[in-house]
Amino acid sequence: MLDDPRKTGLLVAMLKEVLPIPTNITPYLAHELSKQSPGIAIPTRCNVTDVLYSGDMGGIICCLDIGGPDAKKAHLVSITHLAFNRKTPLFRDIETYQRHRNKKLKQQQGRFS
User: Fold this and answer.
1) Domains, the chain
2) Before 43, cis peptide (omega within 30)?
3) Mean pLDDT, range 33-52, rounded to an integer
């Protein structure tokens, strides 16, 4: 199991309380988003407008408001692909989750390689 359901559920609830959350889009994510929405200029910063837990396979998913003509189109990404400023509410909790999840994913990859 990658995530502790109790801790993850608590983090999702806390994140929902402080929405919208400003975030930075990493270069890798910007590239992937531009492939999905070629007509939109992908900003380097945007807001997380909603969060949900997609289970152990996907983890915490963030809905991004990146603007543009397809603003109604949902842009859903894993929280592990986002970079948050240290002044962001719940920064330490987010960073702890990201590190833990990435560590578990790497361990899991090692078992299947």
Assistant:
1) 5-103 (2.30.30)
2) no
3) 90
pLDDT digits over 87-110, tens only? 999 999 999 999 999 999 998 887
Mean pLDDT to the nearest integer, 50-64: 95
**How many beta carbons lie within 10 A of that of residue 95, not counting itself?**
14
Of the two residues 109 and 82, the one the predictor is more confident about is 82
- Report d(CA 58, CA 79) in Å as an integer: 10
The model's pTM is 0.89
8 Å CB contact between 58 and 45: no
Cβ(24)–Cβ(48) under 8 Å? no
Strand partners, 65: 47
Residues 34, 36: Cα–Cα separation, whole Å:
5
pLDDT value at residue 74: 76
